[in-house]
Design a protein that fits this description.
InterPro entries: 6-hairpin_glycosidase_sf (IPR008928), 6hp_glycosidase-like_sf (IPR012341), GH15-like (IPR011613), Trehalase-like_N (IPR045582). By secondary structure, the chain is an alpha+beta fold. Helices cover 32% and strands 21% of the residues. A hairpin with a 4-residue loop joins strand 1 and strand 2 (16-19). The two termini are 41 Å apart. The chain binds the ligand OC[C@H]1O[C@H](O[C@H]2O[C@H](CO)[C@@H](O)[C@H](O)[C@H]2O)[C@H](O)[C@@H](O)[C@@H]1O. Residues 239, 253, 255, 257, 261, 263-264, 332, 334, 384-386, 388, 568 line the site of the ligand OC[C@H]1O[C@H](O[C@H]2O[C@H](CO)[C@@H](O)[C@H](O)[C@H]2O)[C@H](O)[C@@H](O)[C@@H]1O.
């Protein structure tokens, strides 16, 4: 099975596919990110669905890249017979959902093979396949897939295969279109027309980016990746494109990230605004308001990409898991947790969009959320790491509750909005006093993970970023140094020590990439800029050949771990690049793009 970093992503802003260096699409959920997969080999075997196109006898491509500023992937294969290119993409969704693969001969005469195994419903439904007027029809239950190509297609062992040869200038297209099975088949889009349309879409999108500076390429790729994780129809942002890629190979820390976490999505907002993508920021704000509408007591920490509340967790027993990392889970029980930081992130994000977009149409909702937080902030919670052990008083959660009260009080004093200023100021001060009294080690020198604990937590690095204390406060400096000392692993950072058993889960995990980027930002904040730049550049080296990051990394094996591509890691990268280029911005001002 391919390594996680062997995968590139293509997508149509409603779902995404992972393309391996071996030319195989091993992951694709249709029609949406959180739908069942039709290619699920990533979490099992080729018989759980995959689509491979590659020169005969070649194991992996020689090189690959995204066409600049786009999500169109070009893989180059150099073989003894000559060279060929495969261009893979998904046109931004209109009525149909297409995956397009164009094989192009470059030199010599290259024999190519194609192997297609469609397996609906996460790899266990084999469709009924027929040929009609030269088009392959594959139907099962609610799903239908159609394949058009100029290449010969042959059915073999419940798969469809093809063999053909390309010479210089030859272009052999394959278009796979998904539709609900009850709808009539309609001719598939022309591959070349779709390519032009897709390139034009991404060119226009990228042309709006205001980012410049030495890390522009990395930042651009991260922004395109965040855009690829955005569910176009609603503006919701998926935490990652996959489920159950393990946080440790062979372990059981395997979760479904194909949902919209309020935390991840609001943090994504900052780099989008910084780079000039106000439309996306507005769409996200509107998604948020629809999703959280209703009783503030019912605020969830995550929703489906359409805003649905129920995302029940289940396991798929027929899938063995990525490199035997089981169970494979769909849905996520974290949706039912109490994570107090989310109030802070949501109210901070709405303050940000108020200032950046110049509109405020949700103040009543914000007031209702704050009123609720006022009643619950003293409760223990599961924290931002969604710990499944007993609830505790996480210092980061309380700090974010302070952020909520602070942004609401400032909505009144700085934006002239109406509200109980004295009450919210008093709540803000009370939370602050509580954190300073209980969230520090017994000597009062640095912050700790939770009240009464001696553990460190990388989330504490965010304390100055949200404005709770300034970077030059000795307690902040000591916390950054303690986190670095206690959580460093092979030059990067763990989010916390799993050995304490505090997260209620067996096993361990890799270094957490977002936290390692937070350390870059924190080091810039305390003036250790050279060290920050070195760490940042080491982190850039962990990206795969096309600039993608998953959630974690195993320094022993030199391999990426966890779901991919992950928004958390990519916005960490962008914020760190901004910090390195400009120094620290306050969290309530949209950071300016690197110049
Ligand atoms: O490892 C424990 C938890 O891992 C997931 O949560 C993590 O991913 C979320 C989405 O990126 C992020 O918001 C959160 O802060 C991370 O800890 C998983 O979804 C949880 O169910 C799991 O308990």
């Amino acid at each position: 099975m391919a390594r996680i970093e062997d995968y590139a992503v293509i997508g149509d802003l409603q779902t995404a596919a992972l393309v391996g260096m071996d030319g195989s699409i091993d992951w694709l959920c249709l029609p949406h990110f959180d739908s069942p997969s039709c290619f699920g080999a990533l979490l099992g075997t080729p018989d759980h669905g995959r689509w491979r196109i590659a020169p005969v006898g070649a194991a992996t491509c020689t090189s690959r890249r995204y066409l600049p500023g786009t999500l169109v992937l070009e893989s180059v294969w150099e073989t003894d017979d000559g060279a060929a290119r495969v261009v893979d993409f998904m046109p931004p969704r209109d009525s149909a959902c297409d995956v397009v693969r164009i094989v192009e001969g470059v030199s010599g005469s290259v024999p190519v093979e194609m192997d297609l195994a469609l397996r609906f419903d996460y790899g266990h439904v084999v469709p009924w396949v027929r040929r009609r007027e030269g088009v392959l029809h594959a139907v099962a239950g609610p799903d239908a897939a159609y394949v058009t190509t100029t290449a010969p297609l042959v059915g073999r062992d419940r798969r469809t295969v093809s063999a053909f040869t390309v010479g210089p200038g030859d272009r052999v297209p394959f278009v796979l279109t998904w539709r609900p099975s009850h709808e009539r088949w309609e001719p598939c889009a022309d591959a070349e027309v779709s390519l032009e349309r897709t390139l034009a879409y991404w060119d226009e999108w990228s042309s709006r980016c205001r980012v410049t500076g030495p890390y522009k390429d990395a930042v651009d790729r991260s922004l395109i990746t965040l855009k690829a994780l955005t569910f176009g129809p609603t503006g919701g942002i998926a935490a990652a494109a996959t489920t159950s890629l393990p946080e440790w190979l062979g372990g059981e820390r395997n979760w479904d990230y194909r949902y919209c976490w309020l935390r991840d999505a609001t943090l994504t907002l900052q780099p989008l605004l910084a780079a000039g993508y106000t439309e996306e920021a507005g769409a996200w704000r509107d998604w948020l308001l629809r999703a959280v509408a209703g009783d503030p007591a019912d605020l969830q920490i995550m929703y489906s990409l359409t805003g649905r509340r129920r995302v029940p967790e289940d396991t798929l027993h027929w899938l063995p898991g990525y490199e035997a990392s089981a169970p494979v889970r769909i849905g996520n029980a974290a949706a039912e947790q109490l994570q107090l930081d989310v109030w802070g992130e949501v109210l901070d994000a709405l303050a940000l969009t108020r200032n950046a977009l110049g509109t405020e149409d949700s103040w009543n909702l914000q007031c209702a959320l704050m009123d609720h937080l006022e009643r619950v902030w003293r409760q223990p919670d599961n924290g931002l790491w969604e710990m499944r052990g007993p609830r505790r008083h996480f210092t980061h959660s309380k700090v974010m509750a302070w952020v909520a009260a602070d942004r609401m009080a400032r909505g009144i004093t700085e934006s002239g909005l109406e509200g109980p200023l004295e009450r919210w100021t008093a709540v803000r001060d009370e939370i602050r006093a509580d954190v300073l009294a209980h969230g520090m080690d017994p000597t009062g020198s640095h912050f700790v993970q939770s009240y009464g604990s001696s553990e460190l937590d990388a989330a504490l690095l965010l304390i100055p970023r949200v404005g709770f204390l300034p970077y030059d406060d000795p307690r902040v400096v000591a916390t950054i140094e303690a986190v670095q000392r206690e959580l460093a692993a092979d030059g990067f950072l763990l989010r916390y020590r799993t050995e304490s058993g505090a997260d209620g889960l067996p096993g361990t995990e890799g270094v957490f990439l977002a936290c390692s980027f937070w350390l870059v930002t924190a080091l810039v904040g305390i003036g250790r800029r050279d060290e920050a730049r070195r760490l940042f550049e080491d982190l850039l080296e962990l990206r795969n050949d096309v600039g993608l990051l998953s959630e974690e990394y195993d320094p022993r094996l030199g391999r990426q771990l966890g779901n991919t591509p992950q928004a958390f890691s990519h916005f960490g990268l962008i914020n760190a690049a901004v910090a390195l280029e400009q120094g620290m911005g306050r969290s309530d001002e949209p950071p300016r793009p690197p110049s």
